[in-house]
C-alpha cells in the first residue's frame, strides 16, 4: 500500500468564518494519501493587539503531516510574539522590513 490508499477518502471537511470585513471558506479532503498531510490556519482578529488584522495560511505536508500541523498550531504565535514584530507595531513599512528579515 505504501503512502497511498487502495481507494481515496473523499469525505470533505468544510469551515467558514467572517470578521474584520472579510468572509472566508475552506475545504479539505484527504484523497489517496494514507493520512491528511495538509493543514491550514484561518484567524480573523489576531490576538496581541492586532484584532483588526487577519491571518490565513495553507501548509502543504509534502509526504507527511508533522510540519504542516506544527505550523498550523504555532506559526502565528511565533510571528506575533517575535521581538522585531512587536517592536514594529502596526506600521506597514516596519512590518515589511521584519518580514524580509525573517526570510
Automatic annotation (TrEMBL):
Region (Disordered) residue spans: 1-21
Feature: compositional bias, Basic and acidic residues: 1-14
SUPFAM superfamilies attached to this UniProt entry: PP2C-like
PPM-type phosphatase domain segment(s): 23-103
PROSITE patterns: PPM_1 (PS01032), PPM_2 (PS51746)
One Pfam assignment: PP2C
InterPro entries: PP2C, PP2C_BS, PPM-type-like_dom_sf, PPM-type_phosphatase-like_dom
Keywords assigned: Hydrolase, Metal-binding, Protein phosphatase
Single GO term (MF): metal ion binding
Protein name: Protein phosphatase, Mg2+/Mn2+ dependent 1B
Organism of origin: Macaca fascicularis (Crab-eating macaque)
Lineage: Eukaryota, Metazoa, Chordata, Craniata, Vertebrata
Name of the encoding gene: PPM1B
Amino acid at each position: 500500500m505504501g503512502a497511498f490508499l487502495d481507494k481515496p477518502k473523499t469525505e470533505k471537511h468544510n469551515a467558514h468564518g467572517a470578521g474584520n470585513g472579510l468572509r472566508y471558506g475552506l475545504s479539505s479532503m484527504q484523497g489517496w494519501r494514507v493520512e491528511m498531510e495538509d493543514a491550514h490556519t484561518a484567524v480573523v482578529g489576531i490576538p496581541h493587539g492586532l484584532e483588526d488584522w487577519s491571518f490565513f495560511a495553507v501548509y502543504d505536508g509534502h509526504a507527511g503531516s508533522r510540519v504542516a500541523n506544527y505550523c498550523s498550531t504555532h506559526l502565528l504565535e511565533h510571528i506575533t510574539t517575535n521581538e522585531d514584530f512587536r517592536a514594529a507595531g502596526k506600521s506597514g513599512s516596519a512590518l515589511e522590513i521584519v518580514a524580509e528579515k525573517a526570510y
